[in-house]
Amino acid sequence: MDFVSVARSLRRCRRFRASNCGKSIHSHLVKSGILRDVFFANNLMAMYIDSGFLDEAHQLFGEMPERNVVSWTTLISAYSHVGRPSEALRLFTWMLELKLEMPNSFTLSAALKACALAKNIEVGKSIHRHICGAQLQYDTVLMNSLLDMYVKCGSLCNAQDVFDSIPLPNLTSWNTLIAGYCSKGLMEEAVNLFQQIPEPDLISWNTVIVGYAHMESQEAVELMCMMHRAGVKFDHFTFPCVLKTCGFLRFITMGEQIHCYLIKSSIEFNQFIGSALIDMYSKCSQVSKAMKLFYEYLGYEEFIHDKMVLWNSIISGCASNKYNSATLALVSRFHSSGMLLNSYIFGSILKVCINLLNLRCGTQVHGLIITCGYHLDSVVGSILTELYAKCGSIEDALQLFWRLPEKDVVAWTGLISGCAQQGSNLLAFSLFREMVYLNVGVDQFVISSVLKACSSLAGLEGGKQVHAYCVKSGYESETIIDTSLIDMYSKCGEIDDGLAVFKHMDVRDAICWTGIIVGCGRNGRAKEAIEFFQAMLEKGVKPNEITFLGVLSACRHAGLVGEAFGIFRSMSVDHGLVPRLEHYCCMVDLLSQAGCFEEAERLIFDMPYEPDETIWGSLLGACVSHNDVELGKRVAELLISKSPDDASVYVTLSNVYASLGMWDCSTKLREVIRKVCLKEAGRSWIEVKS
């Protein structure tokens, strides 16, 4: 038999993955007895592995009368390569126990890859000891595998020690350790390493950019500019990362510049760049541009087999921007084109149902999710839980939640925020305590939701416990949490604690300034509210409509008519904001309480909105305080004609009559209320000493 021809035939079977031909050769080798030769057996095993028949390769391995280190290494590498690290490590352990063949550097590298996949640091450390005992630490490729194992297992101290022990680290060594620091958010250490590389390559730059992009930091954009100035050419991996950062930070100008660069340069578009551009425009609220790009990319022939990622991006972008009709239209077109619905599409449809608080539509989508087999998907399950909770079906939300195979922080946050939104505040707080007890990774969003629940309960003790947890866990510096703490303390009547939180904040955006202004106004400290408003303007922070509503409410509580008028005028004159109905309502209430009825009526008739019951109700309520029966009757009649079933109108007018001693009129109105059964008994409660 021509051994050379057999070897050549096996190589061709491996190259073209011709498993049937390989099986024929296998039969021939068994009959001829040549398979006893370890060289041919190894080649046949490699043929099965390359053709995707790993179980057959393992069976052949077990039948081999003789095995060498290549045999063991080939099968261990195969199991690591296909993501079956347990089998790879079992084989490696068996090899060591038999002591027939000593593992070489290739075997050890394959075993280290399996340790990294399985996060098995103990076996990895034993391999590390073996490397040191065998004096293999001068093999840079092997040491890079060891370094990668420690990085993947999250042990950066050991990874740094390995890196320091490599006599001549190459670019792979540097990039692996940098990637490790980036994955843990330790960007200072990562950049320090990056700056020490003699000649960083494209992968080095991209690794640091990815690290900053995951932290959603503008440093990713700045590093890309440095990369361009250094003459390093971008690749398809660079742009999606930077565009992601532009989207999160709403750097629309920079995003558009990158888009122009892509058009002018010779870089070939792919579906990932296209998806990143669509996502960037969507996050910057430029949905029309995102849609235009999407329909343009649909016509690209090179995207014909990879359009799923584009569909995911545009549908998700429309849903996030609450373009509910557009989202549903896109999903309908997607489904009618014959493409299969996936977890991303279902997630977007459910977000539309949440936006619309449409439980009926949500339950129909839930049925479709079960039909398509996605009911056990953790992402879809988390959004379903949030849907039921925010639509008020708390029992269904809890049942879904406890059935989830994996309850991650997203699922907990959706359930807790839904409970808080629906007023099930005690349940929200109880769930948060259980989440902490189970050691689930709490984030700033779930803490913000539970603080909202404490605010609604006026539960100071619970709020202080959450605050203590934030300090202990290092979340106190998060702006979203500080703002929620200020809101909680102000609603619980402890504005001084809220002021203390505000004064210790490193970064203050418009939301936290608004929070402290509203809090001061709510607690009767109008002067401080106005002072904070002025300080906000001096710091160059742009106020929004809610900020103005907060400071005007503070003026209303203190009866500061002159100050309120000045702030109200500046809203449109100095800041280009159009006063909404709530701002007019606040001003009317202020003027009415001050007895300026003519000015209040003039403002009502001059405003560009149709006055609603709230505005007329404010005017009517002030008539009681100032005993203005004529105006009170006129306003009450107008309100009764608009809302004949509103008991508060009858009660307020009755109080006007009573305050003027017109008891007959007051009694008649009370009789009307009793006959029609308009007024229900009210109730309220507060927390006292927990």
TrEMBL record:
Keyword flag Methyltransferase: no
Entry keywords, A to Z: Repeat
InterPro entries for the chain: E_motif, PPR_At4g14850-like_plant, PPR_rpt, TPR-like_helical_dom_sf
GO biological process: RNA modification
One Pfam family, short name: PPR_1
GO MF terms held by the record: RNA binding
UniProt repeat feature PPR, residue ranges: 37-67, 68-102, 170-204, 408-442, 509-543
Protein name, UniProt field: Pentatricopeptide repeat-containing protein
